[in-house]
């Protein structure tokens, strides 16, 4: 069995997540996030770069994301890539890559404490109903 999995750590930008409903009443919450990284340029200078990702959540995870995550929130997202082909207003074919989230973890301690939700004793902070939630101490040891 093949598997595609992506893990992102970054900030929700440039606006709050947007919730909508499918025709069968299922909630979908989408947001964009930016993940910054630094590399060395040809001249040896540090160059900061940013990658932008479109993220979608569904069902209970979508509800929780809409309630807890805001513009500027630092989040960890686990999910899979999904490609979507469509045509723009001029009829040109377009393709977009989107992350279909299985889990969204709110990493901002203050925001978790202020909300009183998305935080459990022991340092776990799942913003959704996914299966994972890493303790803060483990997250600080991640190489990114």
Detail the topology: elements first, then pairings.
Elements: E1 6-12, E2 18-21, E3 27-40, E4 46-58, H1 59-68, E5 74-87, E6 93-106, H2 109-115, H3 136-140
Parallel strand pairs: 4-6
Antiparallel strand pairs: 1-3, 1-5, 2-3, 3-4, 5-6
Describe the structure.
- The chain is α+β, with helices and mostly antiparallel strands and 144 residues long.
- The chain has a single domain, classed as OB fold (Dihydrolipoamide Acetyltransferase, E2P) (Beta Barrel).
- Helix content is 15%, strand content 46%.
- The protein contains 3 helices and 6 strands, in the order ββββαββαα.
- Strands 1-3-4-6-5 form a 5-stranded mixed barrel.
- Strand 5 and strand 6 form a beta hairpin.
- It is globular and about 55 Å long.
- The two termini are 28 Å apart.
Summary keywords:
five-stranded mixed beta barrel; 3 helices; single chain; 144 residues; disordered C terminus; alpha+beta
Short description:
This protein is an alpha+beta fold and 144 residues long. Helices cover 15% and strands 46% of the residues.
Give the % helix. 10-25%
| CATH H level, superfamily name | Nucleic acid-binding proteins
Count of all domains: 1
Strand content: over 45%
CATH topology: OB fold (Dihydrolipoamide Acetyltransferase, E2P)
The CATH first-level class comes to: Mainly Beta
Characterize the overall form: globular
In total, the number of strands is 6
Terminus-to-terminus distance: 28 Å
> Strand order, biggest sheet?
1-3-4-6-5
Model regions low in confidence, pLDDT < 50 over at least 5 residues: 117-144
Count of DSSP-assigned helices: 3
Label the CATH architecture.
Beta Barrel
Oligomer: single chain
Taking all residues together, what is the mean pLDDT? 82
Q: Structural class of the secondary structure composition?
A: alpha+beta
């Amino acid at each position: 069995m093949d598997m595609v999995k992506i893990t992102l750590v970054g900030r929700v930008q440039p606006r709050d997540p947007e919730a909508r409903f499918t025709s069968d009443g299922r909630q979908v919450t989408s947001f964009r996030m930016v993940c910054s990284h630094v590399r060395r340029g040809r001249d040896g200078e540090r160059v900061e770069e940013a990658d932008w990702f479109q993220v979608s959540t569904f069902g209970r995870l979508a509800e929780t994301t809409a309630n807890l995550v805001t513009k500027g929130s630092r989040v960890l997202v686990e999910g899979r890539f999904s490609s979507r082909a469509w045509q723009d207003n001029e009829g040109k074919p377009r393709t977009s890559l989107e992350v279909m989230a299985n889990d969204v973890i709110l990493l901002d301690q203050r925001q978790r404490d202020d909300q009183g939700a998305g935080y459990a004793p022991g340092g776990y902070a799942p913003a959704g109903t996914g299966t994972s939630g890493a303790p803060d101490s483990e997250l600080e040891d991640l190489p990114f």
